[in-house]
Design goal:
By secondary structure, the protein is mainly alpha-helical. Helix content is about 45%, strand content about 0%.
């Protein structure tokens, strides 16, 4: 049976324990970060999908798809590493799997307007709304010699990983959406060439 005296003693002990706990948290060293309980629960290491890792036995951060399984849509594993060699390999082997139709061009235009126009400009000339006069790192035009010669794989690689000051868009656009954007960029380039030829013929 718990007596009144025992209750007082327990109350006193609880108060003293609380004071001791509070005191222990007040360190004179202001640079001390304090103590963490179960840090792995909220400080887990960031691991990118399908990158080299010791998480699984095959040295990848995610299990590879089971042989014979069908991917959903066109969102499949991207096997090209984010290197110059990967960039060139993508340019040499990747082609657009999305059918070129008026609908896919229109869908690509809508995606381009949302995700690309602010930097690359409505016409693809690099004169987006966020650019300022005298910019030391201007966004290139899709119509210069270098960009006109880009292959579809190069473009897809650049949208996926980012290029120079452009950040990666893999988390913003699905693989299918990236291909549709490429259809629209090529549509802009074809229109530009047609306009140039028309102007040249008129002269």
């Amino acid at each position: 049976m718990i007596t009144e005296k025992m209750m007082k003693n327990l109350s006193t002990l609880a108060v003293l324990s609380f004071i001791a706990l509070m005191y222990s948290s007040c360190k004179s060293d202001k640079k001390h970060p304090g103590y963490e309980f179960m840090p792995d629960m909220y400080r887990n290491a960031a691991v990118k999908t399908y990158r080299v890792s010791d998480f699984f036995n095959d040295s990848l951060s995610a299990l590879t798809p089971v042989a014979g399984t069908m991917p959903r849509g066109i969102n499949t594993y991207f096997p090209y590493p984010n290197t110059n060699e990967g960039y060139e390999a993508a340019g040499a082997t990747l082609t657009n799997p999305v059918a070129l139709t008026d609908l896919t061009i229109e869908e690509g235009k809508e995606l381009y307007t949302i995700k690309c126009r602010h930097c690359h400009g409505e016409k693809g000339d690099g004169k987006g709304t966020i650019k300022v006069k005298g910019d030391l790192f201007p966004v290139p035009s899709y119509f210069d010699e270098t960009r006109m010669a880009l292959k579809e794989g190069h473009m897809f690689f650049s949208i996926t990983y980012g290029k120079n000051l452009m950040g990666p868009h893999a988390s913003l656009l699905s693989q299918e959406e990236r291909w549709k954007v490429i259809h629209y960029i090529q549509h802009l380039q074809k229109n530009y060439l047609a306009e140039q030829n028309k102007t040249a013929a008129g002269n």
